[in-house]
Amino acid sequence: MKPLILQGHERSITQIKYNREGDLLFSASKDNKPNVWYSLNGERLGSFNGHQGAIWCIDVDWTTTKCMTGAGDNTCKIWDCETGKETGNIPTASSVRTCMFSYSANMAVYTTDKAMKQPCEIFIIDVRTIDDSFSRQEPILRIPISGSRVSSILWDNLDESLITGHENGEIIQWDLKTGKKINSIKEHDQLINDMQWNKDCTMFITASKDHTAKLFDAETLMLLKTYKTERPVNSAAISPIAEHVVLGGGQEAMEVTTTSSRAGKFDSRFFHLVFEEEFARVKGHFGPINSVCFHPDGKSYASGGEDGFVRVHSFDSSYFEYNFDY
Amino acid sequence: MPAAAVKSSWADEVELEDGALPPSTEVFKNGLKIFTEYKVDEDQKKSKIVRTYRVEKRLVSKSIALRKAWKKFGESAYDKPGPNPATTIVGEDVYIQFISSKEEDNKPDDDGLDKLKALGDKNVVKCRNCGGDHWTSKCPWKDTVLAKMPDDKKPATGGGPSADGNKMGGSKYVPPSMRDGAAATDGSSMSRRDDNYSAIRIANLSDSTTETDLEELVKPFGPIHKLYLAKDKLTGLCRGFAYIHFKFKNDAAKAIARLNGHGYDHLILSVDWSKPMNNQ
């Protein structure tokens, strides 16, 4: 397969996401301009100009009208997908690490870092109407986090609870009506960099610096499967059509210069969802992969790396014909 | 002025290059967009860049079609329709590397083990004195007269094992060229091919042949290690030949014997051993 290489960023990619239909691919990087691309031919639709710091997170609502970014310049911004204009701006006390629209996109969540004497905090906001008063609007709910900071977040599909992944490897489920913890587990030893749903939001996969990715049941947070590698895992995604997961990672960015790219193991690695066994690899990045995601039709996937490139791979027939022997 | 782009001879070209660079052109030809551009690079050398795009029409849902018509914004506001080569490039071919599952790796070992086990029941151990299945040192006839007359025994029992060895490749080493299966082929094919797999080349395939067709065609002969069908880059149609790597040489020989001259899809196939690339 010939991947499409998207070179719209000057610094490392932090997160990439497809919209619901998968025709657009949103990419955020440590430079201050998130990009949006047509996933089919790699054409850039545009960039969202206005941030002044590294973008840590990006999300798009299910109608692909609103896009949300959180950045190191202490703001969380809402953008209009069609025109690329900034429609809403929320100033925060510290940098915004994670953000996500709820399933209905009536609400959104963002979390701030524990920095500059500010605690780590979860904010739930109403995003139904975005106008001039949006930046002054009080959040619906604020949950201060006393312990380890939030490093990844997921909404459930009923807009009733939140799942947060933390720097110390903890996973906490929050009830939105009360703002209280429902459940918490600690199956990882280190930072959880990414969490992604499966297609029907019954399971989610976590990617952690402790060299593993784990599959959990969304309702009970029960550990279902563990995918072991020998490098930190930065991102993991579940295929919507096959029982496959893809893991992206590699050694830490700060250690990259001291080893050759071959030793770094910067491949996307495909594991069987059930048997936890690696069955395929795809090479290409020059640095660790920071974010991977499957196209919603499952026929292609994209990866964004520390090297600043986004690579969109459309699987060829050998992938679909491959049968896992068991 | 598209006519300027059509140059009749190199002489005209030189004259043209004295002045300004020719304008870039865009030609649409049977579903392809050919974009030609002239540039002066850092070394003051003029270069011609030809990019070929395939223009495709796809039926998509309404919302996607609507989004496709959105105007570009931000950094891309001034980009023309279609991918901008500054931000989008098509990467080199990468392959998804499948890691063969453990079971496949184990299979040959198991087979070998089974063979050994089967042999073990018969005669792994053979007495040098009497030819019985026990160690020479444990021979019951060691100190008797029988031990001193191996010449009598050998023609009787010694003939047996050697004949057996030819039949089932058992206890005695038999060079590959002397084995049953290889007898059909001549000695000249004792090249590096023999080390791994047996490749055959099928030529004169029709252009509508697909990999699945090919697989169906050759599968009856035996397990296949690899199958390569040459395809046209643009159209994806078969280019008329294919290489099949069989796991076993016997199967490959059988396939050649059976398929050479076989009528397939209105054409007559020509099948032979695949020649190594650096064939002298």
UniProtKB/TrEMBL annotation, chain A:
User: Function of this protein?
Assistant: Component of the eukaryotic translation initiation factor 3 (eIF-3) complex, which is involved in protein synthesis of a specialized repertoire of mRNAs and, together with other initiation factors, stimulates binding of mRNA and methionyl-tRNAi to the 40S ribosome. The eIF-3 complex specifically targets and initiates translation of a subset of mRNAs involved in cell proliferation.
Gene Ontology biological-process entries:
formation of cytoplasmic translation initiation complex
Q: Which family does it belong to?
A: Belongs to the WD repeat STRAP family. Belongs to the eIF-3 subunit I family.
Query: WD repeats: which residues?
Result: 6-47, 48-89, 185-226, 282-312
What is the annotated localization of this protein?
A: Cytoplasm
**Sorted alphabetically, which SMART domains does this protein's record hold?**
WD40
Pfam families given in the database record: EIF3I
Any stretches that span the bilayer, and where are they? Answer: none
Please give the SUPFAM superfamilies that the UniProt record associates with this protein: WD40 repeat-like
Q: Which organism is it from?
A: Ceutorhynchus assimilis (cabbage seed weevil)
- A GO CC annotation given for this chain: eukaryotic 43S preinitiation complex
Molecular-function annotations in GO: RNA binding; translation initiation factor activity
Recorded hits in PROSITE patterns, A to Z, give:
WD_REPEATS_1, WD_REPEATS_2, WD_REPEATS_REGION
Q: How does it assemble?
A: Component of the eukaryotic translation initiation factor 3 (eIF-3) complex.
Q: What is this protein called?
A: Eukaryotic translation initiation factor 3 subunit I
Recite the UniProt keywords alphabetically. Answer: Cytoplasm, Initiation factor, Protein biosynthesis, Repeat, WD repeat
Chief location bin: cytoplasm
TrEMBL record, chain B:
**Protein role:** RNA-binding component of the eukaryotic translation initiation factor 3 (eIF-3) complex, which is involved in protein synthesis of a specialized repertoire of mRNAs and, together with other initiation factors, stimulates binding of mRNA and methionyl-tRNAi to the 40S ribosome. The eIF-3 complex specifically targets and initiates translation of a subset of mRNAs involved in cell proliferation. This subunit can bind 18S rRNA.
Q: Which residues form the RRM domain?
A: 198-276
Q: Where are the transmembrane segments?
A: none
Q: Name one Pfam family in it.
A: RRM_1
One Gene Ontology CC term in the entry: eukaryotic translation initiation factor 3 complex
Compartments reported by the entry: Cytoplasm
Organism field: Ceutorhynchus assimilis
Q: What is this protein called?
A: Eukaryotic translation initiation factor 3 subunit G
